[in-house]
Amino acid sequence: MTCREFTAFILDYLEGDLGPLVHARFEHHLTRCPTCVSYLAAYQASVALGRDAFEDDDSPAEQAGVPNSLVRGILWAVRTAGASS
């Protein structure tokens, strides 16, 4: 797995949505790439800070009744398009 692939799978990894083979490749990459270990830690910290900052507020998507799976799908599509540029 390359670092670029690693970043494309990071959200699915954190949400437990990777298949066994990709999950194993992801974790193997972590054993060999200290840069991605740091990136993962920073990503997790950013997500935690974001949750804490808006803990009491409903997101506009939640207020509009947009399913979280749709929001995740859109974010995945944006990441995928950005990775292929």
Question: Could you characterize the architecture of this molecule?
Answer:
With 85 residues, the protein is an all-alpha fold. The protein has one domain (3-83). Helices cover 76% and strands 0% of the residues. The protein contains 5 helices and no strands. The longest helix is centred in the middle third of the chain and has 20 residues, at 34-53.
- Number of separate strands: 0
What is the rounded Rg? 14 Å
Mean pLDDT: 82
Percent strand equals: under 5%
- Estimate nothing, just give the exact number of structural domains: 1
Structural class: mainly alpha
Characterize the biggest β-sheet: none
Q: What spatial form do the alpha-carbon principal axes imply?
A: globular
Topology:
Layout (H helix, E strand, L loop, with lengths): L2 H12 L5 H13 L1 H20 L6 H4 L4 H16 L2
Helix pairs in contact: 1-5
